[in-house]
C-alpha cells in the first residue's frame, strides 16, 4: 500500500488556528493507501480533527480508519476511530513531546476514488464543554471562564514547547558549526599525509631505478 507523509504543525501562536487538508482515498490501486501527517504538539495537548467524508457508505462496509500514533512512546497508538459517517468530529490528545503520526486509512469496498477532507483545530471540542456545563451546572459565563483558562494554559504550554525547540535547534546549529570548523583542518591533514607518502614512494622508486642515491 502507498503511504504519503506530510508535516502538520499545530503549535501555532493562535489557538483558534485551523489547518485543513484534502486528499483522495479508495478507487484503483494507484490511489489506495493510507495518508499520513506528522503532527508536532506539546505533551498532553488536546486538538480536534473535523472530517468530511462523502464516500462513506458507497460500498459494503466502506469507511476509513483514523489513527494518532506517538512516535516517542515506542509507536504507542493514542487514538483510533472508524469513520463510517459523512462528517464528524474526532477529539484527540497528544502523548509526549515527540512527533505524532496522524493517518487516514481506507477500509472496506470503496469502488471509486473519494475526497477525504480533514480540518484540525487546537483545543477541546464543543461537546466536551457542553457536557461539562451539564454535569457541573455551569452557566454561560462560568463555562466561558473555563474555556479561556484552558486556552491560556495551552498557550503557555506552546510557548514552553517552542522554547525547547529553539534550544534544540541552537544546539544542532552549534554542532554543525563545530564540525564545519574541523572539516578543513581534517582535509589539510589528509592532503599533507598523502603528500608525505607520495614523496617517500617516489624516493624509493628512484632509488630502485638507481636514479637517486
Care to describe what's here?
By secondary structure, the protein is α+β, with helices and mostly antiparallel strands. The protein contains two helices and nine strands; from the N terminus they run E-E-E-E-E-E-E-E-E-H-H. It has helices at residues 126-136, 140-208, and strands at 4-9, 18-25, 35-40, 46-52, 63-70, 76-83, 87-93, 100-107, 114-122. The strands form two sheets. A five-stranded mixed β-sheet has the order 1-3-8-5-6, with no helix packed on it. Strands 2-9-4-7 form a four-stranded antiparallel β-sheet, with no helix packed on it.
Kindly summarize this structure in a few lines:
This protein has 213 residues and is α+β, with helices and mostly antiparallel strands.
Proportion of strand residues: 25-35%
What fraction, in percent, of the residue positions are helical?
25-40%
Structural class: alpha+beta
Strand order, sheet with most strands: 1-3-8-5-6
Secondary-structure element order, as H and E?
EEEEEEEEEHH
Number of strands: 9
Largest sheet: 5 strands, mixed
Number of helices, counting only DSSP H or I runs of 4 residues or more? 2
What do the pLDDT scores average to?
Answer: 79
Quaternary structure state of the chains depicted:
single chain
Broad shape: elongated
Q: Distance N terminus to C terminus? A: 72 Å
Query: Spans of 5+ residues with little confidence (pLDDT < 50)?
Result: 9-16
Taking Cα atoms only, what radius of gyration do you get, to the nearest Å? 28 Å
Please describe the structure with a list of short key phrases separated by commas or semicolons.
213 residues; alpha+beta; five-stranded mixed β-sheet; 38% helix; elongated
Amino acid at each position: 500500500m502507498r503511504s504519503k507523509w506530510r508535516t502538520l504543525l499545530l503549535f501555532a501562536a493562535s489557538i483558534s488556528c485551523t489547518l485543513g487538508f484534502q486528499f483522495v482515498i479508495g478507487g484503483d490501486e494507484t490511489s489506495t493507501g493510507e495518508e499520513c501527517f506528522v503532527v508536532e504538539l506539546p505533551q498532553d495537548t488536546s486538538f480536534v480533527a473535523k472530517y468530511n467524508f462523502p464516500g462513506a457508505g458507497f460500498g459494503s462496509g466502506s469507511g476509513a480508519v483514523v489513527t494518532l500514533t506517538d512516535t516517542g512512546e515506542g509507536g504507542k497508538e493514542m487514538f483510533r476511530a472508524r469513520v463510517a459517517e459523512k462528517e464528524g468530529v474526532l477529539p484527540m490528545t497528544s502523548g509526549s513531546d515527540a512527533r505524532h503520526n496522524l493517518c487516514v486509512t481506507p477500509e472496506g469496498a470503496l469502488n471509486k476514488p473519494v475526497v477525504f477532507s480533514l480540518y484540525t483545530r487546537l483545543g477541546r471540542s464543543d461537546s466536551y464543554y457542553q457536557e461539562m456545563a451539564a454535569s457541573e451546572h455551569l452557566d454561560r459565563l462560568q463555562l466561558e471562564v473555563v474555556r479561556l483558562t484552558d486556552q491560556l494554559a495551552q498557550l503557555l504550554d506552546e510557548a514552553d514547547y517552542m522554547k525547547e525547540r529553539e534550544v534544540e535547534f541552537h544546539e544542532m546549529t552549534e554542532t554543525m558549526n563545530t564540525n564545519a570548523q574541523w572539516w578543513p583542518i581534517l582535509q589539510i591533514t589528509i592532503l599533507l599525509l598523502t603528500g608525505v607518502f607520495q614523496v617517500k614512494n617516489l624516493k624509493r622508486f628512484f632509488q630502485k631505478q638507481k636514479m637517486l642515491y
